[in-house]
Amino acid sequence: MADRLIIVESPAKANTIKKFLGGSTKVVASMGHIRDLPKSKLGVDVEHDFEPQYINIRGKGDLIKSLKKEAASAKKVFLATDPDREGEAIAWHLAHILNIDEKADVRVTFNEITKGAVQEAIKKPRKIDMNLTDAQQARRVLDRIVGYKMSPVLWKKVRRGLSAGRVQSVAVKLIVDREEEIENFIPEEYWNIYAILLDDKTNKTFEAKFYGKNNKKIELHKKEEVDEIIKEIEKAKYIIKEVKKGERKRTPAPPFTTSTMQQEASRKLGFTLKKTMSVAQGLYEGVKIPEKGTVGLITYMRTDSTRISEVARAAAKTQILKTYGEEYYDNRYYRTKTDAQDAHEAIRPTYVDINPEEIKDALTNDQYKLYKLIYNRFIASQMSAAVYDTLSVTIDANDYTFKASGQNLKFKGFMVLYVEGQDEKEEEENTKIPDLQENQIVIKQKLESKQSFTEPPPRYTEASLVKALEEKGIGRPSTYSPTITTILERRYIEKIQKQLAPTELGKVVNKLLTENFSDIVNVEFTANMENEFDKIAEGKENWKKVIEEFYGPFEKEVEKVEKELEHVELVEEVSDVPCEKCGRMMVIKYGRYGKFLACPGYPECKNAKPFVETIDVPCPKCGAKVQVRKTKRKRNYYICENNPKSCDYISWNKPKKGEKYVENEKVDIEEKEVKKTKRKKKTTKTAKK
User: Is 300 a catalytic site residue?
Assistant: First the structure.
């Protein structure tokens, strides 16, 4: 008979905690949630105050019996599930199943799984926080209502098995909207002029960029404008008009929150969100380290706070002074966003003295990479700024102005350890220009002009989508990964070379939802609901009242949509392809993998075939239709419908109206793909060696 029974969520966490407590304490795992809403029905009594109809999760019967038996024989039961809303709700469900008074002091939480944190938490149990529990219930109930009411519309009008979700649908909308921006983008021509100049004192050349005329900035859009300017300055004297010397400081990034960890792991390690959270979970719950046993290496990984404890701050200071010296230390505090849930610290190592390199052999490769990223980011956040000397010069050539600037890193500071990654291309850290003087004449070596075109916004990556969701207030730390994983699994979006693009199915579903449920599939509405959940968690709102205020207008909207669509048949787009079996013109349908052609005579005629997309621009070589195809790596290419019979046109680039065919543009798509694959395999083999 155990004196104390501690229930956590996972076996790994249970194993780590066991070693911190005495022999009379038993630690067991609930394996996540044990109760949930039923899958077969709505499970929410909308007529009786939105009471959730929870049931025990199928397949957990034996586990529940075991937990009841252990709880009955223990003198004291502690519920030590994760320290967030989801964990609080699991604790509440456990209390219900085990007949534990929810007002009793049975709840223990710790932000890190260390001996001190666990023992301290056990000494100070508290009541289950019903505000946090209700916030989780509100999210679960609202999402269930939205999904169960909106999904049947998709079943009737697209196909069965599809589902709609409050946050997921908004995420899909962001990706579809971005794709439309890209498709509708019209490039604009612009030009730059560069002067390659020589400082005869040092015999060093540097590059200056055209700025304007008479101190007014000029934007160049035509070659004729460029040629005219070059003509006027070809023989001009280039005089240094102004020299500005200065100093620039670059400060370190704050310690990781969930979203910044996901973004950085995506940029630097190539991890998906799902992989990042899985690896982080393992580091938090505990890893077996030689001579130390099982150790929780990082603090709780679902947080949007950048706060760190004074103990952790002191440990970082000791480590920095010992490793780098006093000039590299700076006691930094980071401001957490006003709408952040500040219950937890930022993500940081639990033991600063456990260096990633020292325990590399005890970790998997993925664990080592992520732990090193978290460790270095945390230490760097308490280090001095990097310092650059800067030099900017203005150069006159007749009435025209050029500018040049450079910087030189003179003190690395935190950059000796860690530099934050960026989605966009980073500027060069050192760009040197000679030490020039005002009124000095520099010698023109040559003038260069460069034509460019504005580019559309890039597709979202997992990292940039998380950033966008966070900035717009959609979702919270625990929802980013499951949201993106869900819409990928439903094939509403797909990954093309790490970028997220909507599938045809995603576009159809988004169109249907935005046309009929515009108030729900709305960024502002979704962000506002997150604020409502936050108010519930703070005890400022009643969760059932929030659901009630949402449900009334929503139910009327659903009824209106169902009525409007009742007699509307989904009009199938007829193709110009005849069915070779029965002669009917085949129609375009949407399946799990996008568009396909099917005979409208189904079930008498079951003929179906892949849909071949064409563009509205004729083949530049023979005038026939141009097809859009995908390589095995999901990259689009364009090919004449007569290829290879009578025309060999094929290109990576989408042809434009009136474009003339150039022979050397022809590419061997498959050969190029094979070469890419071979290079990748060769690189992998080299890395393994």
Answer: yes
